[in-house]
Write the structure tokens for this entry.
Amino acid sequence: MIGEFMGQQRGLGAALVVAQQSSDVARTWGITLVSSLIAGLAFALVGITERLATSWATTTTGASA
């Protein structure tokens, strides 16, 4: 998305720039929320993949054993 701010014509970053420049607040918030949702889902997917790939590793949640 950062690369899209630098001059791309397509994508969420470019759509966000256009929405900001045209003062379309609802669209700006919508794109921001969709981007956040995508990032959150990607973070969760990486976490699940990590747990499945390293099921042998101990977990460190901060609780004393």
In short: The chain has a mean pLDDT of 83. Residues 25-53 form the longest helix (29 residues). The chain has three helices and no strands.
